[in-house]
# Entry
Amino acid sequence: MSGQEGRSAGGLDWRQLALDAALAADERKARDIVVLDVRHVSPFFDCFLICGAQAQVQVRAIGDHIEHALREGGHRLLHREGYHTGTWLLLDFGPLVVHVFRDEERRFYNLERLWGDAIPVPTPFGDPGGRAAGGGGRLDSRAEVPYNDSQVHSDTGDDGE
# Structure
């Protein structure tokens, strides 16, 4: 399997897994929800979901709700980091890594800039990047979201010749 085919989670497409996690985050009022396709820059996972929260207790509530929602969908959490500090919570579901930040830490670490080669994935929030890009509607994971895999660049360094 090439890195571009995607590493599915129990047969579920990584995009749907990310949208399900984004829906759960939105249900707990997560801020600035962003999904990034990192398949062409990471051999370990397919995408990030990055979102913010105003307070430590909200970071934990968002993380708990994402865990519960994905577990209900049959997905296993592989690793969790940062729950007790409540400033940056990382949830590893294999193809999907979720980052829930308190707003101050999100601005400081700025993963969107750090992973600048990643491709923003459109979500039903509106523009790629969701609320951060001016969206703000409720997320419906059943909504059709256009996504073009040809946006993912070859990691071979050649131009296909």
